[in-house]
Amino acid sequence: MDQHAINEAEWKKPENWSGSRRLFYFSKKDSRTWVPKSIPWMGWTVNLAHPAGACWLLGFIIGLPLFIIALMALTHGK
After folding, report:
1. What angle (nearest 5°) sits at the alpha carbon of residue 35, between those of residues 64 and 42?
2. Which of 26, 34, 22, 33 is nearest to 10 (CA)?
3. Are 34 and 46 in contact (CB under 8 A)?
4. pTM for the predicted model, two decimal places
């Protein structure tokens, strides 16, 4: 079985998804960082078992508030 087939098989397993709407994906066997959501037209999500996926999530959690604070600080003086 090649890696593409493994990725597809892992993506289809319900136990790799969590949350009431299957929002979070966690599969160590899946080599992808970004995967389609369980309902593909809804976009993409991060594979939290992939090291780069965890970095992306951390970047969103820390980076987005910092960006908002910086934007507010820059526009506050005008």
Report:
1. 75
2. 26
3. yes
4. 0.73
